[in-house]
Structures are given as C-alpha cells and as structure tokens.
Design a protein that fits this description.
352 residues, mainly alpha, two-stranded antiparallel ribbon
Length: 352
C-alpha cells in the first residue's frame, strides 16, 4: 500500500480509468477553477472590520478589543481543532464541550481540595482523565459499533452528572497565581492564549496535511468502505480521532479554568455551538467541502469578531446564539451543496 493516500484517490480505488477529482478537466486550469469562494471568509472578515469600525469606532478600534478577540476565542479554536480531527475521521463528538467543563472543575478541585496537588501534577492528571473520556467514546463507537452521535450524547449526560457530583453545585476556585499565570501573560503584546491556539493549529495542520497518518484519517472519514478496501484500518482512526478530541477538550478545560480563576458545573456547554459552527464554516474556506485547519481557524475568529462587534454595538445576549446558529446552518447547507457538486464531477469524470 502506498504511503501517501488521498481521500479522492481512495474513492477511485478499484475503478480503472477513473480520473481523480484533482485531475478532472472541470478542476484544472484557469482563475475560474481556483474559485474566489474559497477565500470568501477573508473578504467577509475585512467587510466586518470596516462595518464595526464605522459603527462603533470608539470601542471597536482599540487594542483592548483586539486583545479580547484574540484571547477569548482561543478556547474555541483549541476545541475546534480537536473536533476537526474526529470529524475528519468520520465521527461526531458531541461531548467535547462538556468534557472541557468537567476538566476545568477537575483541575480546580485537584489543586484546591482533596489531595491539593501542585499545578503540574494537577494538569497532568486532568489531561489523562479527559483523554480517557475520549477513549471511552472511541470504545463505544469503534468496538461496540454505537453511532458516534448517540454515544457521545450519552457521554455528555454522564459528564454533566459527574461535574455536578464532584463540585456539589458550588464554584471551584480561586486558584493560585502560578496557575492563572499560564494564561495571564502576553507574548510581544499578543495574548498567550492566542499563541497556544496558533501553535496547536500548526501541529494539527502538519499532522493532517503532511503525514500519511493524516491522509489516511481523511480517507477513513471520506469513504470508509473504500478506505478499508485500500487496506486502511478505519476503526483505529475513528477511535484515535475521538481520543484526540477528548485530549484537546481537556487541555482547553485546563486553560479555561486558568483564565477564569473560578469555575462551576455549568461551564463548557456554551462552547458547543460556536465550535461546530467554526468547524463546518471552515469547510467553505481554502479547501472547499473538506474539514481543514486554517479554514476552521479563520472561521473561529470571523465569528468571534462578529460576536464581539455586536456586543460592543449594544446587541442583546441572545444575539450571540442567533449569530452562531445562523452561521452553522448556512455552513452546513453550503458544505452539503459543495459535496453534491463534487460527487457529480466525480461521476462525470468516471463516465468520460
């Protein structure tokens, strides 16, 4: 089996004469084939900057606003990176947001109550627990054959109950200065949280786009049957994607607790909607119809900028959910249409 496996090539496996989509006549050459649509997020981002700069210039055009946008959306970016890997492998993880909230409570309790561990041991134990949650999801889906949507939805309920039990419904915190310093610093004026998210994005991007492991992960999610025929052990990638999602959720929970300095059982679920919106909106950017890191990263800050601008303009709190929900619906519809058009091109290419 070749070390380099592309999802499109896997779809064409066993069909002599089929032209891969990347080589089909409909997708080669010309500016039209490049497609300005894949860069529409950048255009929308610039338009949003102009809009809010004219609408609320006294509050939007400030360094504190940009610092808030960069830092506060880093948690969403980290969660989206974890979700992205599981989606690429073909598994939905609905538990990542609750896992992050649960991890935030666990790391706080480990430092302030019970064993009162130091910062590093508490973080390591929390990361192990969060990763085990992902492994639990992976076992349900990969070994027992439970649908990922149903399995992770059940895990959400378990984590909600666990968070309420271990916290007794009370706030956990405040935390030591050595713990809050993890997220309270800046790097040449840039919030350290944004730096964490950017480093995570580079690592995940390289792993998915420039390693055989990443290409096989995409192949498993794109067409599991064809991938299995090509010799790819798709179940391993589904389990691995869910484990990675759990680990990233746990890391995000630790950073969330550090940035807030106190947490309770209700923290976490509010991140589900913006993260899913960013992941699917990302499929409309750069690599159309495909989950990709930089499209998702752009989508996170596109949505975050829109939410921040609306809040500065005096919008009600519920507008945030409406904004993210509308973005998710539009992104899913657009991604579905892109997928249908791609399939039609593949059929046309195979027939020709």
């Amino acid at each position: 089996m070749s070390e380099v496996i592309d999802p499109h090539e896997v779809r064409a496996a066993g069909e002599p004469g089929k032209v891969p989509p990347s080589e089909s006549p409909a997708r080669t050459g010309g500016f039209k084939q490049i497609g300005i649509g894949r860069f529409s997020g950048i255009v929308a981002f610039v338009a949003m900057l102009v809009l809010f700069s004219l609408w609320v210039p006294e509050s939007f055009l400030t360094s504190s606003t940009w610092s808030t946008i960069a830092g506060s959306n880093a948690i969403i970016a980290l969660l989206a990176l974890g979700l992205l890997v599981s989606l690429a492998a073909g598994a939905y993880d609905l538990s990542f947001a609750q896992n992050a909230g649960f991890s935030a409570i666990v790391v706080g309790l480990l430092m302030t109550q019970g064993p009162q561990l130091g910062v590093v041991p508490a973080i390591l134990v929390t990361l192990v627990i969060g990763t085990l949650v992902g492994a639990f999801n992976g076992c349900l889906v990969g070994f027992l054959g439970v649908d990922s949507f149903i399995a992770t939805l059940g895990t959400v309920a378990l984590l909600q109950g666990g968070a309420a039990f271990i916290s007794s419904g009370e706030y956990v915190g405040p935390f030591s200065s050595s713990f809050t310093a993890i997220t309270g610093q800046s790097f040449f004026g840039v919030p350290i949280m944004f730096v964490y998210a950017l480093i995570g994005a580079v690592i995940v991007w390289y792993a998915l786009e420039h390693t055989p492991l990443g290409r096989r992960c995409f192949a498993s999610g794109a067409n599991p049957d064809a991938a299995r025929l090509a010799g790819i052990r798709t179940r391993r990638f589904v389990i691995g994607g869910l484990v990675f999602s759990g680990a990233m959720a746990s890391l995000a929970g630790v950073l969330l607790a550090s940035s807030l300095n106190s947490v309770n059982q209700n923290i976490g679920p509010q991140y589900m909607l913006p993260v899913f919106a960013a992941a699917f909106l990302g499929t409309t950017q750069f690599k159309l119809g495909r989950f990709n890191v930089w499209g998702t990263f752009l989508a996170v800050y596109l949505l975050g900028t829109g939410v921040q601008g609306l809040q500065l303009a005096g919008a009600e709190v519920w507008v945030t959910n409406v904004f993210n929900g509308a973005a998710l619906i539009i992104a899913v519809i657009y991604a579905r249409n892109l997928n249908q058009r791609r399939k039609r091109r593949e059929v046309e290419a195979s027939e020709s």
